[in-house]
Design goal:
- The complex is a heterodimer of chains A (224) and B (446).
- Chain A is α/β, with parallel strands linked by helices.
- Chain A has a single domain (7-219), classed as 3-Layer(aba) Sandwich (Rossmann fold), CATH 3.40.50.1820.
- In chain A, 37% of the residues lie in helices and 13% in strands.
- Chain A has helices at residues 7-11, 46-49, 52-58, 74-87, 99-107, 125-135, 137-145, 177-186, 208-220, and strands at residues 21-24, 35-38, 63-66, 93-97, 115-119, 164-168, 192-193.
- Chain A has a seven-stranded mixed beta sheet, sandwiched between helices.
- Chain B has helices spanning 21-32, 69-72, 89-102, 193-205, 229-238, 243-257, 283-289, 372-392, 394-405, 409-412, 431-442; strands at 7-9, 14-17, 37-41, 109-111, 113-120, 126-132, 139-143, 145-148, 155-156, 163-165, 168-171, 185-189, 208-212, 219-220, 223-224, 227-228, 279-280, 294-296, 299-304, 306-309, 314-315, 319-322, 326-327, 348-349, 353-354, 360-362, 367-368, 426-427.
- Chain B has two domains: 7-155 and 326-442, FAD/NAD(P)-binding domain (3-Layer(bba) Sandwich), CATH 3.50.50; 158-322, 3-Layer(bba) Sandwich (FAD/NAD(P)-binding domain), CATH 3.50.50.
- Chain B is of the alpha/beta class and 446 residues long.
- The chains are: A alpha/beta (224), B alpha/beta (446).
- Chain A binds chain B through residues 1, 3-7, 9-16, 79, 82-83, 86-91, 110-112, 159-161, 224, and chain B through 31-32, 69-71, 75-78, 80-82, 101-104, 230-232, 234-235, 237-238, 378, 430, 433-434, 436-437, 440-441.
Chain lengths: 224, 446
Amino acid sequence: MSEILRFDDWTSPVPPVRREVLSATPDSDAERPPVLFVPGPGTPAAVFAEHWLGHAAGRGFPAYALTARPDGDLRAYVHDVVQVAAGLPRQCVLVGHGSGAAIVARALARYPARAAVLVSPMLDRWATVGALLRIDPVRGLRAMLSRRLPVLRSTPAPAGDPPVLVAGSPDDRLVPRSALDRTAARYGGAPLLFPGMPHEMMTAPGWPEPIDAIIDWLEKEPAS
Amino acid sequence: MLDTPHVADRHAAVCVIGAGASGLAAVKNLREHGFAVDCYERETSVGGAWNWRHDRSPVYAGTHLISSRPLTEFPDFPMPDTWPDYPHHSQVLSYLERYATHFGLDRHVWFGTEVVSVNPVGDGRWDVTTRSTGGGVTRTQRYAAVVVANGHNWAPRRPELPGQFDKELIHASAYKDPAALRNRRVLVIGGGNTGCDIAVDAAQHATTVWHSTRRGYWYAPKYVLGRPADQVNAGSLRWRLPLRLRQWIFQRMLRLTVGDLTRYGLPAPDHRPFESHPIVNSQLVYYLGHGRITPVPDVARLAGSSVELADGRRIEPDLVIAATGYRPRFEFLAAELLDIDEDGRPDLHLHTFARRHPTLAVVGLVQADAGLFPVAHWQSVAVARWLRLRVTDPARAAAVQQKESARPVRSWSRQKVVPTARHWFEVPGTDYLRVLADLLKQLERA
């Protein structure tokens, strides 16, 4: 019912803000869907601009990356992703990393993406808190109180039933293997694994492998 | 009258008639549910009523939305949040064009093609005969289902006024620009949104303006408590305040902001708030207060160079604009397919589904008291889900149909509305959306 009666949006719409969107477009238009990369709040879009954006563009996919607004809640982040996605020239693919994957998972309910990829997804609040507590107790405690991390079961179903790929590393200290498997199962599959990669795959030395795999998957997915 | 006996079979494809906002939503949502779609649009571009270039478009130069942006945009495709609260019609058109491009809908639309007739062929399938708009060879294609989205704001309903008028008398659909009003004495007939908009335009450009309304109305302002009025109203709907309480709040709010309208010579309304289609105009009362508009009662007859009013007075305008609305027309469908009565009123389940033809539906035939686009979107999702369920799980589809046919209009719409033709398709508040949500849940994949 909440998908139709959007009282929050109707009574107090999210105020607009200037959004930072970085992009890399291919030389020729190969009719590929645009790809929008979403990092977690607090991480700038530049982490994708370093390697992944240019690489995706090189393989024919116009690539964009968005920085989350500085002071916002989950609703505002989702609003920003949907605003940017709707502003792209064609129906796009959403790629969320870390807690950005949680934002993308919710944005999928508000925008019928062509496809979605959740990279090192932090969808499950308690798994994230548990992992953080082990690494850095202070961060873990803050995460426990944060409004920014949702709970897995409260993520609504995606609109338009897009194919969803979940990718991660078994050696990711922030996302336990069990959480990765649970997230993938929720979208009807098994996670695509990149052993040896850290949580921030896009800036690690092995960065080409995951982005190539993601693009291979996008190319194989049937275009509607 | 077919030019060729050959009928091209489009198998499981669905035919959508019209590429305005409702038609586009139907095309997109049907595609999302896996259907092949052929959409026929008589004009050469999308947008329907919102495309001022189209013959049948009712928009005039100063048309803006009267429901604010968050309540008007499609639920899964927002308008840019940098846009104003109440965008101009050209912005709405660019939004619809972007919607079509974004979701790649253009390649499913056959532009410049009008539908001549739609005939059932017995097993739930339909023969749709089309030709180039304005004439030409016809051709017929066979479809698994037909979704009608041909709009209901284009066939003018002319006022029944006895007598003759020597000077200019036009229907509001012919009014496009305030330049036509300059230095003229104008009588505007009609207290709906268009009538009020034109009266306000005339107040700024014409020498004299009379505004004739048959009854008093509740003219709602566009802003209340510093926010778009419909956003504030949505708050009271969220908490499911009883109708009487909402009506009382509305009346008090109006009293505090606009005051007592009878002071300006307007008649007191003969109904409560929310019982007639919302009239949203902040400027009418302003110009009344500045003496730029003279309110007058109903027109009794046209008497050559003057107009006689119901209270016996005579006025002498040189331009009469009848903002008397539109009536729905389905020239390509036999009346019994939509259970259309002798007044021209269709009888559809939830204003959407043809009662005796499960593969025929209409999208957008509602007068919502908030934005139409979200309603058209959810209607078309319901239609798409219904059509898919008929294919994937006929038994369950039959069960849903059974349950729905036992749901009379009164059960979900307890709201009383003024019983005029203008209110045939009035859907109240969020009640309609709740009913659609319930239907969607029943139609969900198991």
